[in-house]
Specification:
By secondary structure, this protein is of the alpha+beta class. It has helices at about 55-60, 80-90, 100-110, and strands at about 5-10, 15-20, 20-25, 25-30, 30-35, 40-45, 70, 95-100, 115-120.
Length: about 130
C-alpha cells in the first residue's frame, strides 16, 4: 500500500513504525495516521505545528464514544493547544500526547484491552 491509502475498514494494532510511516494488518502506510473506532485512515498532519482542532475533527465527529485520544507528536514532545484539550474534555475524552513511539505502545495495550481508544499519530523516520 502506498501514499494513496486513505482508509482501512477496521481499527487494528500497529505492528511497526518508522521510515515515515506505519505497518498494520499486513499493510504499509507512508505518512501520518488516524486510528479510530471502525477504521484507520491517512492523516495529513506532518508535524506538531499541524496539530489543530480542525486536523483532529475526525475524532470529534465520531459517532462511537472514545475515552482516550493518544496523540503521537513525532520525535519531540510539545505542548498541546489548550483549546484542543478543552474541546475534548467537553466530550469526556482524555488527551494524552507523547512521542509517536510511546503513543503507539499505549494505543496497542488499550486496544488489546478493548478500551475505547483513538490515536492521531505523526509519522517519524526513526523508530525509538
Amino acid at each position: 500500500m502506498s501514499s494513496s491509502f486513505r482508509h482501512f475498514p477496521q481499527q487494528v494494532g500497529i505492528d511497526a513504525y518508522g521510515n515515515g510511516g506505519f505497518r498494520f494488518a499486513d499493510l504499509s502506510h507512508k505518512g501520518s495516521l488516524l486510528c479510530l473506532p471502525g477504521r484507520m485512515q491517512a492523516w495529513e498532519v506532518t508535524d506538531s505545528a499541524g496539530l489543530t482542532l480542525a486536523s483532529l475533527q475526525p475524532v470529534l465527529d465520531l459517532a462511537e464514544p472514545v475515552d482516550v485520544l493518544l496523540i503521537g507528536l513525532g520525535a519531540d514532545i510539545v505542548a498541546i493547544d489548550p483549546n484542543i484539550r478543552a474541546a475534548f474534555r467537553e466530550r469526556g475524552i482524555i488527551v494524552e500526547a507523547t512521542q509517536t513511539g510511546g503513543a503507539i505502545r499505549t494505543y496497542n495495550v488499550l486496544l488489546a484491552e478493548d478500551r475505547a481508544v483513538a490515536a492521531a499519530l505523526i509519522a517519524v523516520e526513526k523508530a525509538r
